[in-house]
Amino acid sequence: MRGGTGLLALLAGGLALTLTACGGDGGGSDDAKPELKVSTGYVPQPVGHDMAAGFFVVTNKGGADRLTSVTSPLAAEVTLHSTKDGEMREQDSFAVPAHGRLDFARGGNHLMFERLRHTPKRGETVTVTLHFAKSGAVKAVLPVKETTYQPPSAGETQDKQ
Q: How many CB atoms lie within 10 A of CB 81?
């Protein structure tokens, strides 16, 4: 019995050392708290009256997170979409990598505002609430731009939001 207790203590100590070695200081860990910032967002003025698109960038200076949904007073429903090889697909969520970014841009990931409560016009703003698995709700205000608006490339301007 006594030998069994000693073996258990040895195993427990070894496990504690292993967990400590894997844990590190948390600086680069996906378990670290996310530090999210939403920027460069916009909604192109829609051509129709029942749907609109939305774009933005989520920058993360902390641990990984996941965008799980978006809500807005503008629309009865806001869905997440990706576009790959010209095909648009609805997504349940998007990963926000640790110390990385999640881009929503024309021809790629985007929001679809469905069953609009009113048609947004250039010069207005659209409030959205981004819901994240770890960070909770994050509000952002997206300006409505002209239908053909293309944001400047990263080298042309700094984030203005």
A: 16
